[in-house]
Write a structure and sequence with these properties.
This protein is about 50% helix and about 20% strand. With about 650 residues, the chain is of the alpha/beta class. The chain folds into 4 domains: about 80 residues; about 110 residues, 2-Layer Sandwich (Beta-Lactamase), CATH 3.30.450; about 160 residues, 2-Layer Sandwich (Alpha-Beta Plaits); about 250 residues, EAL domain (TIM Barrel), CATH 3.20.20.450. It has an 8-stranded mixed β-barrel with strand order 13-14-16-17-18-19-20-21, surrounded by 4 helices.
Length: about 650
């Protein structure tokens, strides 16, 4: 019995003692099991059937239990190995973090007292650890965080909430220097959920905050003068408009420099920049306290003067103009410029910022037109003009769609008085305002983009009329520079000529010299000429017209400016200029046309100067398409002299 008990004890304890060696357990327990069974059988199976039964059951259960116990043991050992490796990696990463990162680690206890800081804290944060060790979060904030009390209390509540927080930026003052810290923290809790404190990461973000502040400064300040820029001025104007809507007066002053271009042209842009800086400084000095002063363009400045009568703002503008007009002495020399100003008041002229700016700009334009160097106040007449333009702009697109526009045609005659061409003029009969002058709606159409639709309408309508006229009569249509340079227009013109079965020479496109100011202008003229469409240079002799313009592009015809033609009766220089243009056109093989002929004396001079074609009110005013057949018939049948008299 003693041996049986000892054998059973060995068999039961072997899997636990030798669990790390399953084969060793089998090698130890197998002979014990076999020997015990053999001894009990020899001693008498009848007397020891119970013990034999237990050993047999054990022999079947033992391998499964051993395997399970060995597996659990193995997994536990492997888990401990992995945990140890993980701890080694964590220690490695933390050491690397402490060595190379700009961040630091921190931890608090459940009373929110700082109990741990990275060894590199002093180097990273610029503050000795002993200065904040054992401080509570509230004490730390109140001692080092320099912000308004309300924000300080919000920071304290954030830290004391017991909830995770991320990227909380605080401003701290260390030895009189301002620094910015960014803190993130995660709460530590026990298995029961009790709060044990925070652990987290901090970093010094002073450089980033300074860079962001600098970017914000550049976004709202002019790099040249250091004052506010256009964007900041517009934001200030919007705020002033809101205050004016509540009855607070604000006056917008626009100031544009006179003769500044001469400084750039003669002394260079570097000197021009110095002049701009000095002009801006003088403008700031002249404006009253509280005024917002900005540079809104190349040599254009603006100011918002709050809480003063308009007369006071005007006097401030006059002081600024007087100061700017004083000689500016620089190391590179002495320079004299001037300035003009336009003033618009809120709420007297309304409270819409865009409208106020347009009014001030219109007043500035009026001041320049009046001789420069003065101040002009926006008037109710200008307000009405802006309202009129706004209504026209709103009705423009609908008018195009509803067919409110039509064309009138002015005949172009040769020296014998016979009609050789027609020039198309756009007309708008407003359903309420009546006939609108072209100069009033064409500028709006150009600004709004509706000019392209008007141009297509004019070309289509002109081609439709040309198809009903004799083949010798062509029709010309005026185009803006932007529309003429459009590749889509060239395709439209070719398609329009094909639809109306017109030879390309029957359509002439009139453009101003502004087209040649862009590099692709000459190429666009050449493309139309290659397609057989005549291109006419309009208003030659006005502005910057030059011989180079005629040589750079293959124009079909040149039209002498109407203002120059109108002066030939009384101006010898105008007569010589016209004769020079006619001679130039003849030498270059260009047809020259004179427009603006209003007297018999002018017509006679042009005939004697060998001008091939002419147009003007002396011959005929622009007329609707319905009146053309009768006029053409009378003009063709009658003699030139009687025809002219009748016209």
């Amino acid at each position: 019995m003693h041996l049986t008990v000892i054998a059973a004890a060995f068999l039961c304890t072997a899997p636990f003692v030798l669990a790390s060696m399953p084969r060793g357990v089998l090698a130890f327990a197998g002979p014990l099991l076999a020997g015990s069974l053999s001894a009990l059988i020899i001693a008498g199976p009848t007397d020891h059937w119970f013990e034999i039964s237990l050993l047999i059951v054990y022999s079947f259960v033992f391998p499964f239990g051993l395997r399970q116990h060995a597996r659990v043991f193995r997994e536990r050992v492997q888990a401990l190995i992995r945990l140890d490796e993980k701890n080694q990696w964590i220690r490695l990463f933390l050491n690397d973090f402490e060595t190379n990162s700009t961040d630091w680690l921190w931890r608090t206890d459940n009373g929110h007292r700082i109990v741990m800081l990275s060894p590199t804290f002093e180097m990273r944060a610029g503050l000795a650890p002993q200065m904040i060790a054992d401080l509570s979060i509230a004490e730390f904030v109140r001692r080092f965080v320099t912000t308004d009390p309300h924000k300080a209390e919000i920071s304290i509540k954030t830290f004391q909430s017991g909830k995770a927080f991320r990227d909380v930026v605080v401003r701290v003052t260390i030895e009189g220097k301002t620094r910015w810290w960014e803190l993130s923290g995660t709460p530590n809790t026990s298995h029961s959920g009790a709060f044990l404190g925070f652990h987290g990461i901090g970093r010094d973000v002073t450089a980033r905050i300074d860079a962001e502040r600098q970017l914000r400064h550049f976004a709202h300040h002019d790099a040249l003068t250091g004052g506010k820029n256009r964007a900041a001025f517009r934001a200030s104007l919007d705020a002033a408009a809101r205050r004016s809507a509540e009855g607070v007066s604000n006056t917008v002053v626009l100031i544009d420099l006179d003769r500044f271009k001469q400084v750039n042209d003669t002394a260079g842009h570097a000197v021009g920049d110095e002049v701009l800086r000095e002009a801006f400084r003088r403008l700031q000095m002249a404006m009253p306290n509280g005024a917002t002063v900005a540079r809104v363009g190349g040599d254009e400045f603006a100011a918002i003067v709050p809480n003063v009568p308009v007369a006071s703002a005007v006097r401030a503008a006059e002081r600024a103009i007087a100061a700017i007009s004083m000689p500016i002495v620089l190391p590179s020399g002495q320079f004299s410029i001037g300035a003009s100003s336009g003033v618009a008041a809120m709420p007297d002229m309304g409270c819409d910022p865009s409208t106020i700016l347009r009014l001030a700009d219109a007043a500035l334009y009026g001041a320049k037109e009046a001789g420069k160097g003065g101040v002009q106040i926006a008037t109710n007449r200008q307000v009405e003009a802006l309202a009129f333009r706004a209504r026209l702009n709103a009705d423009l697109v609908a008018a195009i769609a509803n067919g409110a526009f039509h064309l009138e045609y002015q005949p172009v005659v040769d020296a014998a008085g016979q009609t050789v061409a027609l020039e198309a003029f756009m007309r708008w009969n407003h359903n309420e305002l009546g006939s609108i002058k072209p100069r009033e709606f064409l500028a709006l159409a150009e600004q709004s983009g509706a000019f392209e639709a008007l141009g297509r309408f004019a070309i289509e309508t002109a081609c439709s009329l040309a198809a009903t006229l004799p083949d010798r009569i062509s029709i010309s249509v005026n185009l803006s520079a932007r529309q003429f340079l459009s590749a889509e227009l060239r395709r439209f013109v070719v398609g329009c000529l094909a639809r109306h079965r017109l030879r390309s020479g029957r359509l002439e496109l009139e453009i101003g010299e502004a087209v040649m100011a862009v590099p692709e202008g000459a190429a666009a003229v050449a493309e139309f000429r290659n397609a057989g469409v005549a291109v006419v240079l309009d208003d030659f002799g006005a502005g910057s017209s030059s011989f180079t313009t005629l040589c750079d592009a293959p124009f079909s015809k040149v039209k002498i400016d109407r203002e120059l033609v109108s002066r030939v009766d009384n101006d010898e220089k105008a007569r010589k200029s016209v004769q020079g243009i006619l001679a130039l056109g003849q030498s270059l093989g260009l047809q020259v046309s004179a427009e603006g002929v209003e007297t018999a004396q002018t017509a006679q001079f042009l005939r004697e100067s060998a001008c091939p074609v002419m147009q003007g009110f002396y011959f005929a005013a622009p007329m609707p398409a319905a009146d053309l057949p009768a006029w053409l018939l009378a003009n063709t049948v009658a003699k030139p002299e009687s025809s002219l008299a009748a016209a």
